[in-house]
Specification:
Two copies of one chain form a homodimer.
Chain A (H helix, E strand, L loop, with lengths): L1 H9 L6 H13 L3 E2 H10 L6 H13 L3 E4 L7 E4 L7 E5 L5 E4 L2 H14 L2 E12 L1 H12 L14 E3 L3
Parallel strand pairs in A: 4-6, 5-7
Antiparallel strand pairs in A: 1-3, 2-3, 4-5
Helix pairs in contact in A: 2-4
Chain B binds a DNA duplex (30 and 30 nucleotides) through helix 2 and helix 4.
Chain lengths: ~160, ~160
DNA sequence: TCGGGGCTGAGATCTGTTCTCAACCATGAT
DNA sequence: ATCATGGTTGAGAACAGATCTCAGCCCCGA
């Protein structure tokens, strides 16, 4: 949050109430929010902020490298704060929509190795693994062994958890 | 191509001229094509195919696991054939738009390891590394040492190459 | 306190993708 | 070869996410 303040100051951009509220919302949520999620969240707090402003502020946060733009193939983008956090990747359950972050240094290592081998310079990466979380796999196995067909519901709310609980 | 034919037959779906032409276009190009790219390509061959049909056929090819949907954050999707090909990942030059495919078993190994650790079942993945290709990096270095500012142009045509030339 | 440049927001606009539906055609049977 | 039929096709409408417009507002340095 302070980082955002100093970024704005350094860029000679004013810190408005909207910018503050948007960054706080994303910061406190800690999840991967869509623009609509964020608008709803703020509305629930009695703060009305136009979508145009949300888009503009998110793009500022991305420029400041305080946030990251994500796309899980849902047809719209999600954003998450990454202030000072270690570079992490995502595992997305295709059944319930649960997103799990993970951090593994081996990813950075093979990324560097591959770039060196190909003669490239790395700027960023996207690693997303799609599959079934343990609960959904269990549900699928139960259903198939019972001969029934039941699928978990896609969670539009985008529940998140870091690995290890 | 024959795989597509047999997939259609097996699904009791007719093989139309449009489907044949679209699959052939994607097959012969070997690149990551957008729907517009494909429409242009076919128009250049004197084949007029509606976009709705292109979208429908691509989605069939994806279902048949003969093609893969890609999103390089350009605001639209790209598609590439992956008939029988090894699972590969992409390196995208953010300056000139060049896409390089690469295959590294370490990526598959890591994917299996992390899934096991987290208790997940893998279905698919997306690994994209963004950065500068060697030519663009050289251009940037040249420009900055000369004090000038020049950037490569984003290639909308999406040139591709596999690693090793 | 003031002046001005940047910000805001409702709605228009743009663009990629999907939907609609009447005409068309691939397929299997005769 | 001809026929019936059910899925396909394509032009354009519809939709949704993201961006743009511009008049009015607000932050901030003086």
């Amino acid at each position: 949050m302070d980082l955002f303040r100093s970024y704005l100051h350094q860029q000679r951009l004013p810190l408005t109430r909207q910018r503050e509220v948007i960054a706080m919302g994303l910061f406190e949520s800690g999840e991967q929010l869509s623009v609509d999620d964020l608008a709803d969240l703020l509305r629930g707090r009695g703060e009305h902020v136009g979508k145009a402003t949300i888009y503009r502020t998110l793009s500022l946060l991305v420029q400041a490298e305080l946030a990251r733009e994500l796309d899980f193939g849902e047809g719209f983008k999600r954003y998450e704060l990454q202030a000072g956090e270690a570079r992490h990747d995502h595992f997305i359950c295709t059944s319930c929509g649960q997103v799990t972050r993970f951090v593994r240094s081996v990813v950075d290592e093979f990324q560097a190795t591959i770039a060196a081998e190909l003669g490239y310079t790395v700027q960023s990466r996207r690693l997303e693994i799609y599959g079934l979380c343990s609960e959904c796999r269990a549900a699928v196995e139960r259903a198939s062994s019972a001969g029934a067909v039941t699928t978990g519901e896609a969670a539009s709310s985008g529940q998140v958890r870091g690995e290890g609980g």
